[in-house]
Automatic annotation (TrEMBL):
GO terms for biological process: cell-cell adhesion. This is Ig-like domain-containing protein. Keywords: Disulfide bond, Glycoprotein, Immunoglobulin domain, Membrane. It is a single-pass type I membrane protein. The keyword Manganese does not apply.
Length: 391
């Protein structure tokens, strides 16, 4: 004990047997205590030090964003996509020093790998400061800083928590915020009947545009950069009760978001008005030898799992791609991927189910009223050794 300040303190009672009783323990009593004895020859002996920890409950933690304290009643924080987010968590008081840790809880149903983002990029990085190595002062509190290198749209509605643990607490305390990630529109276009099915004049056709953005934005259709030929609904549908040949053309979906105009890629709607025979399976006659510029083998295409592939109908032909169902042995339309009016079909993020036989169906150059198989490609999906080992 510090003899200069404590020798007359009434709180300290020294017993004859060498014991020391401290009444009304205070934070200033925290630290190492040591018994010192002196014999008749004035030789001094020191006992092994004893550490006394005086528990003091810390105040609830709170968060700082850009050095400003987050209002506890307004925990929804707007942040732009791909921006960096810096946070700090502070707890005042407390002895010993409380432990602060970080957690990120994504919104339920969010796929971490939807954007091919690594787990490391999705998690907070705790910033280690050199000053953290300094001796901790009693009752000075604790502070932890963290950084999210980039905020992605998958972080929207995610909860970030700073969790505090301390010996005086039976349950953990936390301070949290919710991320309101603002991101630009992405478009998904679908069609009924599905892509790959030839559209004959007079049938019912629907185009659907789904827009994913925050804040939400309304989809609007355009045809050849003008108004569409039929009324459109506010939920992204463009319905043709009886499609006509004059409805053919380039369609795109647009949306206004935060005072900026965004647009999907163009989709060419082709309406057939000659009597094409679609009542039976097309004749399987290969009229080309290469599926695409990426394929050195005739009719064979090998793609890595998670990769991309593009199929090309023969040059100069007007056709679209279909997938041969291995169970029914019949052709079916392609509900995903990207088709273009030039006879291309592209797949991204290829999975095992994408393997199989693909056929380009179009009009025969010899008989305009008959559909034929203009191209057949067998697609094989392979994974590298590292992927196989992980799975």
């Amino acid at each position: 004990m510090d003899r200069t300040t404590r020798v007359t303190d009434y709180r300290f009672i020294k017993e004859a047997n060498g014991a020391l009783t401290i009444t009304n323990v205070m934070l200033e009593d925290d630290g190492k205590w040591q018994c010192e004895a002196e014999n008749t020859r004035q030789y001094t002996l020191n006992a092994r030090p004893v550490k006394l920890v005086v528990l003091d409950r810390p105040k609830p933690p709170y968060l700082l964003i850009d050095s400003r304290r987050l209002d506890a009643g307004n925990i929804f924080v707007p942040v732009k996509e791909n921006s960096e987010l810096n946070l700090a968590c502070v707890s005042e008081g407390g002895n010993p020093k409380p432990t602060l840790t970080w957690e990120v809880l994504l919104s339920p149903g969010v796929d971490r790998h939807a954007q091919k983002v690594s787990v490391e990029d999705m998690e907070l990085e705790e910033i280690k400061n050199e000053k953290d190595k300094n001796t901790y002062k009693i009752n000075s509190g604790a502070k932890s800083e963290a950084r999210l290198k980039a905020v992605y749209r998958t972080h929207h509605n995610a909860r970030i928590l700073c969790v505090m643990e301390h010996p005086t607490l039976k349950i953990r305390q936390n301070a949290s915020l919710l991320l309101d990630v603002q991101y630009t529109p992405s478009f998904a276009i679908s069609r009924t009947p599905g892509f790959g099915y030839p559209l004959r004049e007079g049938i019912e056709v629907s185009l659907k545009c789904d827009v994913d953005s925050n804040p939400p934005s309304t989809p609007r259709w355009q045809k050849d950069d003008g108004e569409p030929p039929v009324p459109q609904t506010g939920d992204g549908f463009l319905n043709f009760t009886s499609i006509r040949r004059e409805h053919s053309g380039w369609y795109k979906c647009t949306s206004r978001h935060l005072n900026f105009q965004y647009s999907s890629i163009g989709y060419y709607l082709s309406v057939r008005y000659d009597s094409v025979d679609v009542t039976s399976e097309p004749d399987d006659q290969d009229m080309s030898v290469a599926a695409s510029s990426h394929n050195p083998n005739k009719g064979q295409l090998e793609v890595q799992l998670g990769g991309a592939v593009t199929l090309q109908c023969p040059q100069g032909s007007l056709g679209c791609w279909s997938h041969l169902d291995p169970v029914t042995a019949r052709l079916r339309g392609l509900g995903h991927g990207l088709s273009t009016p030039t006879g291309q079909f592209s797949l991204k993020d290829v999975v095992y189910q994408d393997a199989g036989t693909y056929k380009c169906i179009g009009q025969s150059p010899m008989n305009k009223k008959k559909l034929e198989v203009l191209q057949t490609v067998a697609v094989t999906v392979k994974a590298d050794m590292q992927t196989d080992a992980l799975s």
